Amino acid sequence: MFSTQSIRTKFLIQLLFASASLIIIFSSILYFYIEKSIYAERIDALKHYAENIINNKSIIEEGSLHDTFGLSIDIIYLKNLSEEYEVYQKNEKFKNYLTLIYPYDPKHSLYLKITKDTTKTKRVLDKILHYIFIINIAGFGLVILYAIALSKMLVIPIETLTKKLSNMNEHLMNEIKIEELPSEFRPLGETINHLLRRIQNFVKYQKELFIGTAHELKTPLAVIKLKNQVTLIKKRSAEEYIEAIKTTNKTVDEMNLIVSNILNMGRQEGAQLEKPQQIDVIEFLKNKANDFRLLAENEQKELIMDFQPNSFLATLQVGLLNQIVQNFLQNALKFTPKGKKVRLVSFPDEYGLCIQVIDEGCGIDESLDIFAPFKRSGDKSGVGLGLFLAKSAADALDAKIDIKNREDGIEGTVATLQLKSDLSCTLPLKKGKIKKQ
C-alpha cells in the first residue's frame, strides 16, 4: 500500500516525524513549566514561614527544634552563604524533601534550615507526567489517522489524472477538465493537455503521412510499369529505348525525393532530442540570410534583411530553428519571379520574437491545410513535406507558425514564426530523465 518511493509514504513519514517532535517538545515544556511552577510556590511558602519566624524571634530559642505545619525547623551555623538563600531537594527512603537555608542572624552566621516533606507533591507530578504520556500516545494515534486521511486526499487529484491517462489511446484522447482540479494541480493539467494536443497532431499527421506516402509512391510506380509495358509491346529503336529509360529514371528521381523527405522526418525527430543551447537568434538569422543572399542573386532576385532588436537570446535546438527558417526562405525564393524581392525581417511582439519571410510570389490557397503532408500550393513542383516538417519543428520548440497571403495589395505570402521570449525546452538526462531549463 505504501511504497518506499511513493510521495504519499514520504509525506506520511515527514508529517509523523514532525508531529511526534512537536508533541514531545510541547509536552516536555508543559511538564517542566508545571513542575517549576509548583516548586516555586513551595519555595515561596517556605520563605514566608522563614520571614515570620525571623519577625517573631522571641518565640524561638536558639538551637531548639520545632515541627510546625509539617515543617522541620533548625537554626544552624554557617560561615559563608554565597546566595541570599539556598534551596535544594533530596530523596530518602522513597520520600522527597525540600530544604530552604535562610539568613536568621547573618552577623553571627546563624541561618534557618526549614525542611518540608514534598512526597505528595512529587506523586502529583508523577501522575501529571503519566497523564501527559497517555495523552501523547492518544494524540499521536489521532495524528496518524489524520496524516493517512490527509495524504489520501492530497493524492486523489493525481490518481484521477492517472486514471484518465491510463484509459486513453490514440482514438480516445479527451483533454482534462482543468476547472475540476485543485488550483495547485492546474498547471500540471494544462501541461498534460498541451502534450495531448501534440500527440493528437502527431497521430493525425502520421496517418496522413502513411496514406500520402503510399499514394505518392504508387503513382510513379504505375507510370514506370506502364512505360515498360508500352516499350515491350513491339521492338523499338535504340533511341526510343534510351528515351524510355530516361523517363523511367526521372520517375525514379521523383520517388527518391519523396524517400529523402521522409528520411528528413526521422532526422527531425532526432533533432528534437538534441541538447538545447543558448543562441542569439538575430545573429543566427544574419548568417542564414548571408547564405541565401548569394542564392537569390544567382537567381536574379533580391533578399532584403531587417532585424529588430539587435539581440535576442533563446535556449532551443538550433537544428529545428534552422529547418523552419531554411524552408521559409527556400519556398519564398522558389515562388518569387526574377527581379522581385524577398524580405527576411524580425521584430519583438507580445509572444516574444516574430520572424517573417515575405515574398512576391503567387500566394497560397488559404482554404487548404498547407501544413499537412503532401499538400502542395502554387505552380512549382515539390513533394509537399517541407511545411509539414516546419510545423513539426515549431511544435517541438513550443513556437507558433503561420503562412497567409499578403494584405498590402502585393501578391505573395507572409510566412511567420513566433518564438517565446522565455523558451523552455526539455533537456535529456541520464537514465531517461528530463529536466526543465
Short synopsis of the structure:
The protein is α+β, with helices and mostly antiparallel strands and 437 residues long. It folds into three domains: 7-144, no CATH class; 176-272, Helix Hairpins (Orthogonal Bundle), CATH 1.10.287; 275-437, Heat Shock Protein 90 (2-Layer Sandwich), CATH 3.30.565.10. It is built from seven helices and 14 strands.
What does this structure look like?
This protein is α+β, with helices and mostly antiparallel strands and 437 residues long. It folds into 3 domains: 7-144, no CATH class; 176-272, Helix Hairpins, CATH 1.10.287; 275-437, Heat Shock Protein 90, CATH 3.30.565. The chain has helices at 7-55, 119-166, 186-233, 238-272, 281-298, 318-335, 386-396; strands at residues 66-68, 71-77, 86-92, 95-105, 110-117, 277-280, 302-307, 313-316, 341-348, 352-358, 400-405, 413-420, 426-428, 434-436. The strands form 4 sheets. Strands 1-2-5-4-3 form a 5-stranded antiparallel beta sheet, covered by helices on one side.
